[in-house]
Amino acid sequence: VCFILGGLDCSISFVSHVLGKVCVHGRQKEILGVLVPHLTDLTKSDCIWQRICWRLLECVPDRWMEAVVLGFVQRAPGADVLSRLLGNLVVKNKKAQFVVTQKMLLLQYGHTTAVLQNLLGYLSLDSVRRTLLLRVLQELLETWSSSSAVKHSPAEQQLYISKAILICLSHLKEPEIESCRQELLTSMMEGVKCHLDSSLPQLRRLGMVVAESISSKINTEGPVLKFEYEEDDETRELKSLLVQTPPFCVVPSLPDDDRSEKAGAALPLVPESNEKPHTAAPAMPDEELDAELDSDDDLTPYEMSEDKELKIKPPMYIRDCIEVLTGSRAEDVDKWEATVKALESLVRKNPAATREVSVELAKILLHLEERTCIEGFVELRQRAQVAVLTTDPVPVAKYLTSQFYSLNYSLRQRMDILDVLVLAAQELSCPKFHGKTKHSGVQKPCIQLLPGSDSSKDWRRIVDERIKNKTRRFDMGRSHVELASRPNEFNSVAGHFFFPLIQHFDRPLTTFDLLGEDHLVLGRLVHTLAILMYLAVNTVAVTAMGKALLEFVWALRFHTDSYVRQGLLSCISSLLLSVPTERILADMTEELLETQSWLGDVMEKDPDGDCRRLALQNLLLMENLRKKLEAVPS
Amino acid sequence: MALPPPDPQFVLRGTSAAVHTLHFSCGGPEPDIPLLFSGSENGFIHVWNLKTHRVDTALDGHGRRSVYCVETMGGKDRLLSQGRDQRICLWDLAEGRTSVTDSVFTEHVGFCRCSLLKVAQGRWLMAMAARSLEEVQILELPSKTSVCTLKPEVGAKLGMPMCLKLWQLNCDSQPVLLAGYEDGSVVLWNVSMGKALSQLICHQEPVMSLDFDAEKAKGISGSSEKVLSIWSLNEQQNLQVYKTHELVNAGISDITIRPDKKILATAGWDHRIRIFGWKKLKPLAVLDYHTATVHCVSFSDHSNPRERLLAAGSKDQRISVWSIYAQT
């Protein structure tokens, strides 16, 4: 479509109509693909063409305005171009204003970052439109800081709104920030609270990045808010939006001015070079000094091979460890450190001794706090706890699960209990060895002279290797089989891990309310139950566990926290995978049918993408089950 | 084949408290008994008779607060001691007396040992950490008049002075002070002008102890980290790092160079005393006797080189005395 215009007075409303109609019918791409570049060129320096363009758009009837404006915003190569093309359309036309300030920002969230940049840049380029920019920012912040929006809207929409907020902030000037500083501060505080409350790490990070950015804008001097989080592509992208400032924000009131290229010219922050404090460079000893007669030569050194690093010896017995860990003398910190580091291996090497004091040890470890700064203290403690739990599963599991529901533990401790249970369950149910490596297993078939491998001395090892070298040819096949089988230790204790955890979830305590505020712990509990269910495959208790789990899931299926819902769906998956098919169909048919309809609901309507995906997986698993049943002749 | 390290020649027991400082006084003519002064954490200064290996006298002048520095002033009759009661006491020990003749109230609550330098007959300069955090005060003894106060410039952030050494190249030259600070730097001060001549960052951790060889214009400093730092002073009075030596275990509480400048000894937090050759810092011996941190080492001032001794005081309340490299 080429424009052939004669004089200045012709009416272009007809063209507007055509444009509008075409756009509404979905042909935006084609027509605007030709129109926009043309208009861009023509309006670059020619005021008349600009006015023609504005008139063109103003005359588009309201019912088609949305499609046209949307198309323009999407196709314009930059905010300045958009400004030239649309002029003050948003101010003059109510429908356009609605589309630009409300619909595209708050009701839709599929647009790219470039489109957002265009839109918000456009709003910022004219003083008349800047009031709209401020209003837009306020509304975005209201959405961002509303707790129900954070809980119920999908993650993609929240990301979109965060991006929009950051771009708005990047366009604001000092006096404007001054005027709305108080509101910015209030919304930031509220918003940060809602975001940090969320169980999904992505949302927490979003909240943190946006709050940091707002804080840096409103506190130019003085300390700014700084969170600790892992940087990844998303956070880096978000932060880059804040930094970029359009080079022409100095003169916003003259849209006709000749502007430099793209609005998106990001001014990268010059990374400050890390200047380390300058220490004097060592002066190279002159060669001449060394030529002096070295009278040190007549001083013969003594034997110094014993001069090694000073090591504190850790205790050799479990009961000594207990004494050290519960003792409170300040001088024993070295010994305390050595004990913590050595505890796991001691527990694994002395199972009988550990069994005598297992519950006491578990109690000490649960309450153990860092006394000195050891690297990896949390991991050391956790590994020791897992070692104790695997050595004496039943009483320690009983203790830990009872403590999970007791008063006066911190959330961190409760979640630690769950982690330890899961790790121990994994170890118990896994056929591989953790801890003792039994060399004697390989040699059992033919060598009788090495009963215990743990205390082999060097000469024995050499003999071992020589014999192994000679016999390997005969033994390769058998030794593989020897290592692989081992009774499933999780079988006897699966129930002890599982049922106490599921028992009291609906009984609130004064400091711990799973169904109320502590939904993070509930989410972790649900995920733990899913893992325990999965690991209980081939155990005797698996059917009973499955039934109890199904009831549990049914009670919580409408929980508002998406992390909890994801956990519930993983529970169903574990159940379907672990419980043998015959048992599922024999004992749980009605419940499964109800679950199936619930899953269908979740798959269609749940706002969280992960929940929907998990529900779909579950439905597929159920389909497979049904097919298996049909394949087997009853 | 290297010989195993020697055992201590004898061990002095009986302080009943950790030993923080040692000082020999063995230079007197023949009828004089060689003495070793030791300061302990319980506030006593023990005067050990090195012939009988017993305590001759116990001096109590610091109100049972730990004594962390003892020095003699020109002979065994005059003693200077510094304690955690914020006082420096001057003792008169001639003819069996044990009285405090004078004391200086330093108001210093740290552990920085003072440094003495004899400038003329009967006159000494003493450098000590003063009341204010970063300052070092120079006093003249026995008149106790203040010569100057050495203040680092504002914003230097050196921290507390940790160790001091006053020295002068010969009797006519200016006295100069080397001070090691909490931030790991060593500063050379000109005492008469009260100005800093040079500053060198030797360590990342506080400088625990330093010693200086005025003839070779080379010094050594130890810190709470694993590195010993050797630095030199050039003609322009600038400090430069000469060499560093890495130790097996971190932490040095004291360093001292033997008066004949052939060897030096370090007292380590790892309970060991290390001997190095001073020329090239060649490790010579590791003396492993003590069972707790060694707080101080000191070389004796025997006029007969064969009788020279090295003493080390430790937190395990023992003083080990060694005869090592005495033949050279």
From TrEMBL, chain A:
Residues 266-287 are annotated as: Disordered. Transmembrane segments: none annotated. The gene is Telo2. Residues 315-425 form the Telomere length regulation protein conserved domain. Residues 128-225 form the TELO2 ARM repeat domain. It is found in: Cytoplasm; Membrane; Nucleus. PANTHER family: TELOMERE LENGTH REGULATION PROTEIN TEL2 FAMILY MEMBER, TELOMERE LENGTH REGULATION PROTEIN TEL2 HOMOLOG. Gene3D superfamilies: Telomere length regulation protein 2, C-terminal domain. GO terms for molecular function: Hsp90 protein binding; telomeric DNA binding. This is Telomere length regulation protein TEL2 homolog. InterPro entries: TEL2_C_sf, TEL2_Regulation, TELO2_ARM, Telomere_length_regulation_dom. Belongs to the TEL2 family. GO terms for biological process: 'de novo' cotranslational protein folding. The keyword 4Fe-4S does not apply. GO terms for cellular component: cytosol; membrane; nucleus. Keywords: Cytoplasm, Membrane, Nucleus.
TrEMBL record, chain B:
SUPFAM superfamilies: WD40 repeat-like. WD repeats lie at residues 200-241, 287-328. Keywords: Repeat, WD repeat. The keyword Cytoplasm does not apply. The keyword Repeat applies. This is GNB1L protein. It comes from Gymnorhina tibicen. The lineage of its organism: Eukaryota, Metazoa, Chordata, Craniata, Vertebrata.
